[in-house]
Design a protein that fits this description.
The complex is a heterodimer. By secondary structure, chain A is an alpha/beta fold. Chain A has 16 helices and six strands. Chain A is 62% helix and 7% strand. In chain B, helix 2 packs parallel to helix 4. Chain B folds into two domains: 216 residues, P-loop containing nucleotide triphosphate hydrolases (Rossmann fold, 3-Layer(aba) Sandwich); 60 residues, Alpha-Beta Plaits (2-Layer Sandwich), CATH 3.30.70. Classes of the chains: A alpha/beta, B alpha/beta.
Chain lengths: 444, 304
């Protein structure tokens, strides 16, 4: 045991004192926070040059309202009132007389103007848009062209101006329709008023009073599970894969042979795993501790799932043992970095499976799919924790069964890896096949 | 004398290749035992089996009178053929690490003493990757003996050392023996083996071919070597009857006499063909014996 400890301490020091570790520990939060900040900053970075929209209005009734809407928007949104800076482009509407003789020629001409950057886009409003003859539920692509509004632009589908136009045109068209039928818009508004279905959490008893969790948005519901899962994923990724390099170094530098003169292969492997668990717990303390402190400071501590913390740590430790053993076996089976890289893939995929399915799991934590996936040992740490972090009530036995599965599978991994490690450690030359690995694991 | 290591009919195979074949060997306590043999003949495999790194297919190995199990490895220091040091650790840290793994005591003092002795003190806090090959060799040696083991196993300890450092290391090994440590080492340097070892063991293609003191071995190969210097071309020596083999070193020629040849007759025969400046009857050197067993000549003999 003492020797395992000595190996573990060395492994821990070797990992924690590298530049890569320090950089990743410091940079990870910087990147995460930086990403949010960058998004905020970039949001303000829009092209503020004026945008000219040519309008061919075959109805002859909508141009005026478009013009008015554009003016209203230009007054309100273009200049930031506080700073006096231009933050959005001005929309300039240019009416175009429809060319009834050769409409395609006109369209081509306008398109060329757009290519020459003299125009931002042009829109053609069919003459029957206000009073279409087709059925109301017809799909837009089977409508006759006279009932369609077609917006031409270089990237029309994602053009903000197109969306603006759509949102402005519809109320105007509606108003015109109501006016011809002599219906009071207020009545219509009352008739078609939308009834919401609000998302609320469950009620609970607190200090003798029934307490409601109140309204929760999708973001609030998903935030905690996502943060918890990705935190663990990152810690696995920072902790476990470097074991390959560490074993390879011992193998290539023939350190393994010296070590084997003093300790058994299993002691080496177990020591390395313990050291790596130490590394990941260090990160847990840094990040989770830091997160809790930060949350208390900004009065957001109610979002921290304290009851999950023990599960987080237990699953984290098991995940490191499980995946660490796999990475160690890979490292021991290879003789150089190149080989190791290709052999790492299968293990990496196993680590990442939860990332392919997490969306489905977080949306329906109680579905059969979610339950079974979270009981697959390689997925349990991440997915069970993800399910536990959702507000859904997971049956109490499931985390325990999941944990039992993980423990059994981890013991198997450590055992098998130990045997592969023992055979592979002094082996040089050609890389073993999967069948070789299995034979080593079975025969030792 | 008690035996530190006893190998009894030990066989180790790798796949279809037999690395060590029914090897029996006794290493008495407190002796310096030299392992010689060509590359790939099974030296390192034998050493690794004594270290319990490889397990033999059959036969038994006893170390300090016990079968190979338990925590006996703390009593043996092992210097592998290729250097095994963590590049990123400092010299002091790695010595301490290896010392602790052997449950060594009073390590800091011992490390300081040994670094001083090997003139490595200025490098104590430097990283291993900054050391030259010779220096890391010395560090590795210190790591092997830092816990004061009762036996040390050194696989090619002198390879890659300059003469000055080889001298320092040789003194250290002899000091170990004086202190009662059993030393087993393998080497390609026959001169070193001749001078340092109480016993010499040679393994060839997995089989034991020599085992005993240098005198015993030389006696076995008889007094059949003549060293001569003549003022003619060495080729004329090959024509003389009673000469099995001529080894021409340029300034000196070494002759091996065939069985039953009288050295005086030989001298007369040589004198009749050339002026003799030097004539010496000697025992075959270990080098010569080695080459006789493992050289191309022996190859031909075994294939004939």
């Amino acid at each position: 045991m003492r020797k395992i400890w000595i190996i573990a301490v060395r492994e821990y020091n070797a990992a924690v004192r590298t530049k890569a570790f320090i950089v990743s520990v410091v940079l990870m939060p910087v990147f995460m926070v930086g990403g949010i900040v960058a998004q905020k900053l970039l949001k303000g970075q829009v092209d503020t040059t004026d945008k000219k929209l040519a309008v061919i209005d075959h109805t002859g009734q909508l141009l005026e309202s478009i013009q008015m809407a554009a003016n209203a928007r230009n007054d309100k949104e273009v200049i930031d009132k506080e700073t006096g800076k231009k933050i959005n482009p001005k929309y300039v509407i240019e009416p175009i007389e429809p060319n009834t003789e050769d409409p395609d020629d006109q369209r081509l001409e306008l398109s060329n103007l757009i290519r020459e950057k003299k125009l931002h886009a042009f829109v053609e409003i069919g003459k029957d848009v206000i009073e279409p003859q087709s059925k109301p539920d017809s799909k837009s692509d089977i409508l006759p062209s006279t009932e369609r509004i077609i917006y031409h632009g270089e990237s029309a589908a994602i053009d903000r101006m197109r969306r603006w136009l759509r949102d402005e045109l519809n109320p105007s068209i509606k108003q015109l329709r109501l006016a011809t039928r002599d219906i009071d818009p207020k009545v219509v508004a009352q008739v078609i008023r939308f009834a919401q279905v609000e998302p609320h959490g469950l009620l609970s008893m607190e200090a003798g009073k029934v307490k409601s969790e109140g309204r929760k948005s999708e973001g609030q519901l998903m935030a905690t599970p996502i943060i918890v899962m990705f935190l663990m994923f990152m810690m696995i990724m920072i902790g476990a894969p470097p074991l390959i390099n560490s074993v390879l170094e011992e193998k290539m530098q023939r350190i393994a042979e010296v070590l084997l003169g003093s300790v058994t292969p299993f002691q080496i492997m177990f020591g390395k795993l313990l050291g790596t668990v130490g590394v990941s717990l260090t990160m847990v303390i840094l990040y989770v501790g830091g997160g809790i402190l930060l949350a208390e400071k900004i009065d957001a501590s109610q979002y921290i799932p304290y009851d999950l913390l023990p599960w987080f740590i237990v699953f984290q430790v098991m995940a490191i043992f499980m995946f660490g053993a796999m990475f160690i076996a890979v490292g021991a089976a290879c003789s150089d970095l190149k080989e190791a890289q290709s052999m790492t893939m299968p293990v990496m995929v196993m680590v990442m499976v939860p990332l392919f399915v997490w969306i489905n799991v977080v949306k329906e934590p109680l579905s059969a799919f979610s339950t079974w996936m979270s009981l697959v040992p390689t997925c349990t740490p991440l997915l069970m924790l993800l399910r536990q972090a959702t507000p859904a009530s997971i049956p109490i036995w499931q985390p325990w069964v999941g944990l039992a599965g993980v423990v059994v599978f981890t013991i198997f991994c450590v055992w098998a890896a130990g045997r592969i490690f023992r055979v592979g450690l002094l082996m040089q030359g050609k890389p073993p096949k999967i069948t070789d690995l299995m034979r080593w694991a079975i025969r030792g | 004398m008690e035996n530190a290591v006893e190998l009894n009919q030990v066989t180790k195979t790798f796949g279809s290749h037999t690395a060590v074949n029914e090897l029996s060997l006794n290493v008495p306590s407190g002796t310096v035992y030299g392992f010689i043999g060509p590359n790939g003949s099974g030296k390192t495999t034998t050493l690794r089996m004594i270290m319990n790194i490889y397990y033999p297919e059959s036969g038994s190995i006893r170390v300090f009178g016990e079968s190979l199990h338990g925590s006996w490895t703390d009593r043996i220091g092992y210097l592998p053929e290729e250097r095994g040091l963590y590049k990123k650790m400092s010299v002091r840290d790695i010595l301490k690490f290896y010392g602790q793994l052997k449950n060594g005591t009073d390590l800091n003092q011992k490390i300081a003493d040994w670094l001083e002795r090997f003139e490595l003190t200025p490098w104590a806090n430097k990283k291993v990757e900054t050391l030259s090959k010779g220096m890391s060799q010395k560090v590795q040696f210190i790591a092997t003996i830092i816990s004061k083991p009762e036996m040390v196993i050194l696989d090619e300890p002198f390879s890659g050392l300059d003469p000055v450092n080889a001298e320092v290391l040789k003194d250290a090994v002899l000091q170990l023996q004086k202190d009662g440590t059993t030393v087993i080492f393998s080497t390609h340097d026959m001169a070193v083996a001749e001078k340092m070892c109480n016993f010499i063991f040679m393994i060839f293609k997995g089989n034991k071919v020599l085992d005993g003191s240098l005198a015993d071995i030389q006696d076995k190969y008889g007094v059949d070597t003549i060293r001569v210097r003549i003022d003619e071309d060495a080729d004329i020596l090959r024509t003389i009857q009673g000469v099995d083999k001529v080894n021409d070193y340029g300034q000196v020629q070494e002759l091996r006499m065939s069985n039953g040849t009288d050295s005086q007759e030989l001298l007369r025969a040589i004198m009749s063909k050339a002026r003799v400046k030097h004539f010496e009857i000697s025992k075959p050197s270990l080098h010569d014996i080695f080459v006789r067993i493992a050289g191309p000549e022996a190859e031909e003999a075994t294939h004939a």
